[in-house]
Request: fold
Amino acid sequence: MDQPTPLPEGLSAGDFTRALERFRAILGPDNVVVEPERVAPYKKIMIPVDEERLAPAGALMPKTTEQVQAIMTVCNQYRIPVWPISTGRNFGYGSAAPASRGQMVLDLRRMNRIIEVDPELCTALVEAGVTYQQLADYIKQHDLPLWLDTPMPAPVASPVGNTLDRGVGYTPYGEHFLFQCGMEVVMPDGQLLRTGMGSIPNSNTWQVFKWGYGPYLDGLFTQSNFGVVTKMGFWLMPKPPAYKPFVVRYPRQQDIAKAIDTIRPLRIAQIIPNAGTVSNGLWEVAVLEKREDVFDQDGQIPDGLVRELIAKHNVGAWNVYAALYGTPEQIAVNWKIVTQAFAASGGEVLTEEDMTHGDPLFQYRKDMMSGTMSMREFGLYNWRGGGGSTWFAPVSQSRGSETIKQMALAKDILRDFGFDYIALFIIGWRDMHHIVDILYDRSDSAQRQKAYDCYKELLEQFSRRGYAVYRTNLAFMDQVADIYGPVKKSVNQRLKRALDPNGIIAPGKSGIHIQEHRNRP
Amino acid sequence: MTGPADGLPRRAILKGIYAAGGMAAAGALAGFTPLSAFAAPAGRLTLLLGGSPHDEAFLTGARAIAPVEPLTPPLLSARDLGRFLDEQAHRRASGQHLIGLLDDASFIVFQEILHARRARFLVTGHHARQHRFTSLAQSRGMAAALAAGLARQGLGYRITEKSFGIINETASAPPPASPASCHDWASITAAHLARLAAGNWRTGTVGAFQQVGRAGGQGALVSFVAEL
Reply:
């Protein structure tokens, strides 16, 4: 039986009705969503908690910045919390749902204007609801020599949403927040802030100079709840004259150390300039296979079977996907350096020419490392089936000995809970994002509980050893804020109280509340 | 999943070329598939199939109720599926129905695109270790109907259904019989979904149903009727 749509916490039904009338006057009746069946898509989650725990009271769908400002006025008057989303495709971290029951989703997908793309300066300014697909279509339609950098669910996701959650892609512009330049933010009191050079009248430098004057504020609006970002500028990569993707396959699990120690100096020196990936063999297999077809038992899939599967699919125990970019001459020089380094470490270096029959795993990495969208990696969601996925994403030094430690620890904990170690490392300049996908069947309540417990145990065991995640899902935001310590938490809380005294924007995001709060089951 | 132009998978492209001919075929070959080619002829239901081993049974079940036009992309392209839905919505009066059986991954993409276009599901069924339906007022009773069909085949099952806006479970008419050609969960489900899409569904009881016994393999699939 479906539960009724909840009211915002502490609000009477009468006040909610009056607030809805105000919202309808601002947005038009069709853009104020409270009917249970229309609210239902905002409740869809993949993370391992009961969706009713995160059920929103409804959704508001503004079209303009002025409407967002007007919404803030009503929210302050009635103390209604709103949870801003651009498109809400934050799949392994919580999708579109808010951090607690009874918030109104502020769905910005109708704010979908591409305001400017400058092909000479290689910059873009877009509204919050613009998708990567829209931008790709625009670039293609105008035949611009530019590349996007896109995350895995790119066609349905947005540059603003991904950047604000500090997501990553796979080209040399893969660290998205690094390439962000200028924001327009509706503050909780309705004021409109433009960061960087954006507050200068008649300025044409908003999208070319990040810092402006005085304290740099843009970071305050990422992974936070201090304002609603309605526009964002960012840099686009000029299409390079040449591009050479490659894969390096290592045969043994322990070879992750050799792989990382080989990549590190090449990445720091920018010989390998992109945010490539190092995926384990089971990740490769899981993109292509269903678990029930290869292992019909509970418990972690045994190492011996993993070896058989990676042999069957002709992949490595670890697989480095990276690329070279530039002129053919530049690539030729760097290719010698790269092949010598990886060959000396025992890796097998392969390029597209070596893939005689076409390799779907190589092809989708080739696409993604050149900013071409591919949803092939969604195949992971078929490994277990049942629509359950949560990403555990600790940061590691880019050092082989560290990645070995993290791999062993994660694998042991996952084994205790019966889950497979399906992981990759995203190659940063000096760090690795260690991405572990806990795949489970949401229709199986026992498995869902195990996935929750497993994530909790991973957080605790990793933090005891000095490791923490760079991003987390809705159910664990308070715990991760605790891991980052009381002073950081207190500073965030003081900022929140100063900027948003009524706590109307996304209470609980990244563990930030206006008062001490525990959002735990 | 897709070719260099992020086009529709080959089988669908070939189907489009075959159906449309002329300029449409030229467009498809150039990488710009004319999606009007994929609209079902009047009086037929459009069926989206994800390439699972249960596709054939699903198709059999739907065909037992109404003429259908199957589309069989192996893993859906977000761009082309979006265009397809737009095309369908543009060409038809609102209320156009799509029936589908997709793997989990494809369904995640499909539901996001559908939601972005403000279309809705009349019913969804998640088929893994158990069957879980989510229904609206006009589609209630899918779980009971599937349970009745599987019981007649002597198969085991665990089936649940939740329905929006339901206050109390109410007794209703017995679930409709499955067509004689339907022998497993996929074909029985498809027949009932086709009844719903064709406007011939009799709503029934919402509840949970369980019978011990041999259960056919279900994979990890999602069935649905979407209304554009």
